[in-house]
Design a protein that fits this description.
This protein has 640 residues and is an alpha/beta fold. It contains 17 helices and 15 strands. Strand 12, helix 15 and strand 13 form a beta-alpha-beta unit. The N and C termini lie far apart (100 Å).
Length: 640
């Protein structure tokens, strides 16, 4: 046992305070803080002790003898000075939590207490007034020691025992009533102070334990938060990079496939077979694009970054458009797609048209995928809900159905009912998960009722508030994809909905295409040229900026890629806007033409001074929507 008092005394005082020997770091912190608390009041205690002992020596010198009183006062002052020197050594130490400081402080307290206890041995027991003054002073000294040394019992014992015991014995030596009362009173008071000191020590230990445990938890939480944020940032960067790297070649594949398909005739023969094969390439690419979009959506949902926009759109037109698109896919499987839409025409509501379109495409696509024979029915009607109304979409199929024990799992990520190693129905298993999360973010929900062998009914309920008809129908109400730049359609549009099969507006003007990828540049140039536009290409931002910084202003629109060598599209646009501002010129419309398809990418493009955002791979109708917003069309049109 370290310097202190016999072990048999500690159980009488409550034993050692509770510690956790298996956690040495926490014990070290608690020990260090307790030692600091013991040393903290050393300066005021030493000064008060020196002043009081000098004053007391002067007061009792006539009763105890002047020489003895002065010698005692000098001894107490020296003890105070020793404690101050000990404090100085402690403050200079680099290991203040070392157990030796507790041991040495206990020794200093014992020395100081012994010096004060000497005055009890000089007590004139025949003079009760002087004895009472000395006893009161010693009790006060012990009380101060108990209060200032409550962080640990050992220094308290080292102070109180040598201070009060001599005076108690001197009073008991009178062997009369006053002596017994005074001596036992001092001993009882000392025992009470030590008992309270022990309780205070326990409370302090527990508080320190809680404090450092809480600090550790806070540090661990902060570290975990930083780590989670770092992992989230890495994940976001990985998804953004992979999305860009996959979309860039996919844009070239889909674009070339569409150009090639439009140039191949439909008449029977080898060219017709080639056209069909190109259509298969296009569909495979669109399916890959759909998977990429699902992964990005799911990542956004996991990160809590799903955003819902509110705008006025024609719900009836949107539903008719989706049904017509999905009817083509259903007919290819020999299925009937029936619609019972109990809504006025038009039906203007407020909500997120692109998100609603995405959910309906997912539900209808699922119904068609899991139905081999029969039909799919779509029923749409409004239902009252409080002060507003909810639109209910019921998608019923005659497919394989879902077992009752699987109904609670179908909305889980990556889950499919036929989840064997080789699955009959391909897919990521994210469609229903994304649909449910979007519905809930919009204040609604989606549910399913199913019976094996008879089919399923998916019910989507979304609050959409009725609105007055706008003065001019917004483009988002009729454009399948333009309103949702970060997401592709869940089901590809039919082949006939292409530039080569229907009349489209013809434009006039000069376009600066800033694109470093030659394949993607070829696709964009071909599509723009067929719309009647004169296209000039720049291979990087620096070359584009040089072309644009002419007072003649030869270009009407800039399609700007983002990731390019030398100077990227963001910085090129910033420099262009600064130059236009200095020259007091009307800004040229700049559209980001990029494979960066996240919503944050769109916001970054707009903050850099761009006017619009067209993600790759894009369909011709998406390009048309952008051109219509920034270029006035001519009266003529081009047809197949």
């Amino acid at each position: 046992m370290p310097f202190g008092f016999p072990a048999f005394m500690l159980p009488l005082l409550g034993g050692e305070p509770h510690t956790e020997p298996e956690d040495p770091e926490l014990n070290r912190q608690i020990r260090g803080e307790r030692i600091r608390m013991l040393f903290a009041p050393t300066v005021p205690v030493a000064l008060v002790s020196a002043l009081v002992c000098v004053a007391l020596a002067v007061a009792i010198s006539d009763q105890t003898g002047r020489s003895w009183a002065i010698a005692w006062a000098v001894l107490c002052v020296l003890a105070s000075m020793v404690r101050l020197l000990h404090l100085r050594a402690y403050r200079r130490s680099s290991q203040r939590d070392h157990p030796m400081w507790l041991q040495s402080l206990t020794l200093m307290c014992a020395l100081h207490g012994s010096c004060w206890g000497l005055i009890g041995m000089m007590m004139p027991i025949e003079d009760m007034v002087t004895s009472a003054v000395l006893a009161s002073t010693l009790v006060g000294a012990c009380a101060i020691g108990t209060f200032t040394l409550q962080a640990h019992l050992r220094p308290n014992l080292a102070t109180n025992l040598p201070t009060l015991v001599p005076a108690s014995l001197m009073l008991l030596s009178r062997q009369d009533t006053y002596g017994f009362f005074g001596g036992l009173g001092l001993l009882s008071l000392m025992a009470l102070m030590l008992f309270e000191s022990r309780r205070a020590e326990r409370r302090i230990t527990e508080l320190l334990w809680l404090r450092f445990t809480t600090d550790r938890i806070a540090r661990e939480r902060t570290h975990a938060l930083v780590l989670a944020q770092r992992h989230s940032a890495v994940k976001d960067q990985f998804l953004a990079t992979m999305s860009h790297e996959m979309r860039t070649p996919l844009h070239g594949i889909l674009g070339l496939a569409r150009l090639l398909r439009d140039r191949l005739p439909e008449r029977p023969g080898v060219l017709h077979e080639s056209r069909h094969q190109v259509e298969l390439i296009e569909r495979a690419g669109e399916h890959l694009l759909h998977i990429i979009n699902d992964v990005l959506d799911f990542s956004r949902i996991e990160a809590g970054k799903l955003q819902i926009q509110h705008a006025t759109f024609d719900l009836r037109t949107l539903i008719d458009e989706i049904v017509e698109l999905q009817r083509v896919t259903a007919q290819e499987k020999g299925l009937r797609l029936l619609a019972d839409v109990r809504l006025p025409h038009p039906c203007w509501v407020s909500g997120d048209a692109s998100r609603l379109r995405q959910m309906l495409h997912n539900l209808l696509g699922n119904a068609i995928k899991f139905t081999d024979v029969g039909e799919i029915r779509v029923r749409v009607a409004t239902e009252p809900q409080g002060a507003g109304s909810t639109v209910a979409f019921h998608v019923q199929d005659t497919g394989v159905g879902i077992p009752s024990d699987q109904l609670g799992l179908i909305f889980d990520a990556f889950h499919q009912v036929d989840g064997s190693f080789v699955r009959r129905h391909k897919g990521t298993g994210l469609g229903l998960t994304i649909t449910r999360e979007i519905a809930r973010a919009m204040g609604g929900d989606v549910a399913c009722d199913s019976e094996v062998g008879k089919g399923s009914v998916f019910t989507l309920k979304v609050p959409l508030h009725p609105m007055a008809a706008p003065a001019q129908a917004p483009a988002a109400a009729v454009s399948p994809v333009a309103a949702m730049p970060a997401f592709g359609m869940a089901q590809a549009a039919p082949a006939g909905n292409e530039i080569g099969a229907t009349a489209v507006p013809r434009f006039s003007g000069r376009i600066l295409l800033v694109e470093d990828n030659p394949v993607n540049a070829l696709v964009a140039e071909a599509n723009l040229a067929r719309l009647g536009l004169d296209v000039t290409r720049a291979e990087d931002g620096a070359q584009a900026l040089s072309m644009l910084q002419h007072l003649e202003r030869p270009f009407d629109l800039v399609l700007m890629d983002l990731q390019m060598p030398e100077l990227d599209g963001m910085e090129a646009t910033r420099r262009l806007r600064c130059w236009e501002n200095d020259q007091r010129l009307e800004p040229i419309p700049v559209v980001a033409l990029t494979a960066n398809a996240l919503s944050t990418d769109r916001a970054r493009c707009l903050s850099a001074g761009m006017d619009d955002h067209l993600p790759k791979p894009f369909r011709v109708e998406e390009l048309l929507a952008v051109l219509q917003r920034h270029l006035p069309p001519t009266a003529s049109a081009v047809a197949a």
